[in-house]
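hey so i finally got around to running the thing on that chain from the lab meeting. sorry it took forever, my laptop kept dying and i had to restart like 3 times. anyway pasting the input first so we r on the same page abt which one it is
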Amino acid sequence: MKLKGNPFPGYENHYMYYMTGEEDELKAAKEAQAKDLFGYTLPEGMTMEDKIIAGPDEGQELRIRIFTPANITKPAPMMLEIHGGGWIGGSIDIDNYRCIAFAERVPCIVVCVDYRLSNAEVSYPKPLMDCYTAYMWMHDHAEEIGGDGSRIALHGTSAGGNLCAGLAMYLRDIDGPAPSLCILNCAPLTMDFTEDHSYHQWYELRMDGRSTFAKGAEATYDGKANLGMTLPPKYAFPGHAADVQGLCPHFIVAAEYDTLRDSSIKYGIRLLNAGIPCEMLVAPRVCHGFTTVHNAYTDQVHDLMATSLKREFGLL
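ok and heres what got predicted. didnt touch it at all, straight out
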């Protein structure tokens, strides 16, 4: 099968995962990528524990998953991981590999939140408030899990990155405890991403060709409110915010073969122009959410993120 791009070696299945079609080669590649997505090995001595905490709504329960490395010095820095899935899919199970990577490399305690997915009953701001609740639980109950409530970072991929960006902005505006670092990994940051050059350049790899990404955005942010005709709330899509000053340091990851690439780059430039510390990586010849792939290049990117986390946590 001839591909438009030239995928980074080892990411071929991931590239084809985003393509549409019924060819046997495509089906086999998607099955292999889906299997890889859920694969992980828990390092010796690291614990992975699920915990139920009170959610933001009355009577609501919220599940979190806590990864604690062996022999970590306590109180340890912490990171909140927010999974992707277009706001309407995904789960904390797809981020086990990534959570382990951060917990081991920094090292730090990683907490992944099982926020509510968007549907007929759930829309903005409920998923964001679930993430805020998990963040504040980490801050207020840090001692309970051996963490340091003054050193909490954020990481999210795709819709998870969107929620991280919104959470960082929300915490700024309510004068909440600021994240040490906010890592936005292939995040959608504006609702007008379909106007970006990257969307048309890599149209055949668009998310809405596989998982109806745009409909996921509408489900999350209430499509009944003329979404797309008026700007959504700034915490929903921070790229539309009038002011980005005062935000915490950011690390932005974009992928060359991602329709959302330009959305990330433009947000990073806005942060830099506002004087916000911001690192940007445009990963070559890979697609949206590429760090789910078990690959030496993914390891390098995780190493780079871990070094930045160590810097902001004061571990260097």
